[in-house]
What does this fold into?
Amino acid sequence: MDAIVTVSNVVKNYGQDHVVTAALSGVSLRLEPGDFAVMAGPSGSGKSTLLNIIGGLDRPTSGSVSIEGRELASLSDADLSRLRRDRIGFIFQGYNLIPVMTALENAEYVLMLQGAPAARRREKVLAVLAEVGLSGLENRYPRELSGGQQQRVAIARAIAAEPALILADEPTANVDSRTGDSLIALMRRLNEKGATFLFSTHDPAVMAKARRLIVLKDGLVESDSEK
Amino acid sequence: MLIRLAFRNIWRNRRRTLITMFSMAFGLALAIFFISWGAGVYARLINQAVRLQAGHVTLEHPGYRDAPAVDLFVPGSSKIIEELSQWPEVERVKPIVLGQGMAKSGAGSLGVAVVGVLPSAEAASSPLVKNLSQGKYLADNDGPWCVVGKKLALKLNLGVGKKLVIATNDVGGNLVEELCRVKGIYDTGSDEIDTYLVQVPIGFARNLFRMPEDSVTQLGVILRKADFQKRVLKRLSGHFPAGRVAARAWQEVMPEVASYIRMDKSSNWIFQAILLFLVLFTIFNTMLMSVLERRREFAVLMALGTKPSQIASLIFFESAFLGALGCAAGIVLGGVVALVFNVVGIDLAWFVKEGISISGFALSTRIYSKVTPGILLVPSILVFAAILVVSVIPMRRAVKFSIADVLR
Ligand SMILES: Nc1ncnc2c1ncn2[C@@H]1O[C@H](COP(=O)(O)OP(=O)(O)OP(=O)(O)O)[C@@H](O)[C@H]1O
Ligand SMILES: [Mg+2]
It folds into this structure.
């Protein structure tokens, strides 16, 4: 089967001329459909940088990334936008919901961008919100939700359009450990239904639940193990 | 969807939006007020000037403008008056005989303009009649009577009933003199008019200048509305046999008034431009601020697959909504202010004790602003169009960043 993500020899340097920080120093990895991969590693090891590059939010200094066989470097900004809209879901550390939209509207945002018909969209999003345990809170605004609830909305937003790949940068960092556990459990359930996940974390409890653990150190893959 | 989002976004920071709206409204209202007030001053000035002098449109001998002289008259005036009075645009046509002369009394002599008028027509339209301070105004069947200004009366030591000799040249160039008595003294507040203008019955003036029966120097056509001028001038062009009668706009007959208005308008224009620029800057500043503080949000939207052009449209709609709200508020506020002053007027007597006189025409100190759809709408439309143009800058700022950097 084709890989969802192929990263080959990605180098990312920040800064110009004199002071160059090497965030990634030659990373290669493949994600297969159905993976539930957790990326760990000390602070500054390059986890966020790698996630951004895989998601097409940033371009590597050298090396290449392809998503479902499409080389990102060859895509225009508009194509990248479309790829993110249709194939990739993002979950951020801070929930980053749109404050003027309700939970329901936030969750259906990507479907709206795709131009899905309103009725089908509603149906789909209500189901997803139920799935993440937010039934009854659909019409609340983000400020009326707890941190954990907001992160559930963010997860709903990332998965509602059924992307092939979901990238999450420390999705449990801002919630308490019980909420974190339930979010991971939720993502596992979604993974079992077919979504491919790649996320970063500092939390050993989360790492313990990973099916695949990738450890970065100083911009390199230190270990990559299936459990 | 973008439109709905834009609409919600502008109400997100309700206080800032209201402050922006209010300051836009205030600036626009100020602009509207000053424009309508200026228009009110001009309208009043024009109205008084044309009524005191020779109408919105003046009919005269074609050569008179270049070399005013009593022998350049228009014959057969009553037929023209009768005809033009039927026109729907025309309020009245007043006959005028006009010449220069010397006014002499026991106390001295002074150069004056002798104006022969039809008293009934004058009484119905001229502001001079309303400003009579002593005696009575002329009547149509009066003989050798005149009304003079307060300043002239002072200088020549005249009072009601006193004698005055007017010396001048007749149409043949002969030196002539006639005696008349002062029937009334007026006080318009304008030095120029109050020392210079002597009004006499038109028959007396014709006799003085030895002009033929039914001839006039000018016919002052007073229109029901100043706006009718173009139409009437057009209708008059070619109306009379070539070389007999010329129709002139008041701007030509009273160039000093026209140039005063032009200059005043152009200096106001700078002030208006600054005001509108400030209004524009207010909203521009608000939009730029709101864009810069939402970069993270735009980065999220873009990470989710929103195209930069969609973000830019969002900002465009936000600018347009905010601009429309501010402009609408400005029109309402400015309209209310202008209408209030249109009804009650502003009394400047507090500021200018002496009264106001503009290029020799005294104005009453109570000025009423003039409100037209153009005055209300044009400033707002200009500002709104400018908003749409300058919103390009916040639009560009909203998409010009590295998503990864902002999301970090
Ligand atoms: N915009 C930037 N300019 C300069 N250096 C940067 C920039 N972004 C990241 N870096 C550097 O790149 C390296 C990797 O950063 P990255 O954020 O990927 O680490 P991380 O593994 O996500 O760390 P954390 O666990 O603390 O989130 C760090 O040394 C960081 O200082
Ligand atoms: Mg990080």
